[in-house]
Structures are given as structure tokens and as C-alpha cells.
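BUG: 3D viewer hangs when loading the predicted structure for this chain

Environment: internal workstation, default settings.
Expected: structure renders.
Actual: progress bar stalls at 90%.

Input used:
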Amino acid sequence: MGPEPGQAEARLMKTKGAARLREDAAADPASVGKPVSLTFAGAVDLQGLLDFLATRALPGVEEVGSSHYARTWQGGGRGVRIRVDLDAGAGAARAHIHAVDASCRADLLRRVRRMFDIDRDGCIIDAALACDPGMAADIAARPGVRVPGAFDGFETAVRAVLGQQVSVAAARTLAGRLVDRFADDARDHGQATRAFPPAEWLAGADLRDFGMPQSRCDTLQRLAVAAVAGDIDLEGRMDKRELVPALRALKGIGPWTAEYIAMRCTHDPDCFPAEDLVLRREMGGDVALSAAQARTHAERWRPWRSYAVIRLWQRAARRLRTRS
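C-alpha cells produced before the viewer hung:
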């Protein structure tokens, strides 16, 4: 048996507190301009994190290397550049954060912690999931799989909508078109030119000729309007129980999209997009389970279903690479 959920969460709270202490010390004015280091709790699969991000990286906005992630972000009304170097280290993995703008340093560190899932103890999660014989071998081979979170919640939500019924590569192409259009508009106003467009811009943008159905363009703009109005919050002030119904209330956002956005934006460890076909095929041994069957099967993974989902997606990707 794995640890009880209450025990696991208590240990996670202690870990999170330690991470915040490290962050507060690093945010001292004397440290401005120096890299900040955050230590991952427990085991961590750094390569899995980088592979996930590399597959989705937006040219001109994001850059993923063999051991680093860098990006531009529209923070505080201007472009901010950040780089995260990942180091397996001796005994503990670390993320070293380089940011040029000290004015939004604390916010950047919060975003990095969420994106790289730094604070949850991978050993606790692995021990719980390994109780399922179908997961045990994968966990032994690849300990410490993390859930890649959102650096920017609105950006992640937009990209989830763009990814409806298309491949990851096609969704990335569509997101690149949004960035290009925003870059053209921003350049006219002397702003950063390679950041992802904020909700305020997308709410009023002309999305004709984007190579996607008008219904999806309308969904994007409903999402942007809701974000600007505060009807949805994608930066942690809404938990999964609040965010999923709020997203589902927007025409064009179904259960898969809402659950996926919640998994990446709220950092909830127990999300499960049961409608995902790849996930259902992997659970059924290439014969897809129904969504209801998948939900029943996944009960054994509570309260860590988000981590099981990432593991199954990774397993499916490895199978695809082997076949090709």
C-alpha cells in the first residue's frame, strides 16, 4: 500500500515550505542578477520533462536544449527573458533560474516551480502508483516522472483549445501563427515581439485566415474574454473544482480540454482526461477502453491520476517511436 493521501499531502506541505524558504533567501536584494537554484523534491525524470516541453516548444518564444529551457514572457507589460538550467547533480536534481528582470522575480520563480513540478516528492508518488502491477515496471525504469505545468496559464489554455482534434505538431503551428500576428501588432507599438499574446490582445484580435474552423476561433475569443473579465483564473486562484466547471461553461470547451487545462494550470495531482483516445488505448492494450471504463480503471491511481496520465502518454510516445 502507498501512503495515505493525508500523509502524502502533509509531507508535500513540508517540502513546499522548504522550497519557499530557499526562494525567499534567493530573492534577497543582494542576490539580484544571480541565478536562483531550486531543489526538486525526491526523484525526478528531467529528460521526460524536457522531452514534453521540446515537442511543444514555440519557435521564437521557447527554446529547449539537452539540459535547459528558455523563453520570453510578457510580464509586467514588457518582455522578460528567462532561462532554466536543469542539473541532475549529486544526490538531488536542481533547477537554476536566470532572469534578467528583478521586478518580477518572485512571480517568475512561482511559475518555474509550477512548470517543472519542483515541490512534489516524486518518491511518494512513485510508491503509491507502483502498487498497480501495470505501472510498477515503468516506474522502476523511469522514476520521478513529473507533470509539466503551465508557465503561463492563459497560454496553456489557448494551446489546449488549438490542440482539439489535431496533432501536437499542428497545434504548435497554429500557436506560432498567433505569435506571429501578435508580434506584428506589438512591433508597431514598440513592445516585445516574440512573446505569446496576452488575453487582452486575443479578446479583440482578428482571427480570420488562421487555418482553423471559425467555431474554434470563437472559442478562443470566449476564453480570452472570460480571462480578462476574471470569470476564469488560470494562475492558481481557482482550484480544479472551480476551474473545470467555469471552462465547461464556455461554448467549445469540452471535458477533455477542461481537464487537461486544469492538470497543467492548477497543479492538481488528480486530474484525469478520460476522453483522451491515446490514454484509453494505452490503458486497454491498444483496444481503447470507453471513457467510463477508463475512469473506473483509474480509481486505483487516486490521488495521483495526473502522474499516471503523463506516464501513459510517455509510454504511448515510446511505442510510436519504436514502430516508426
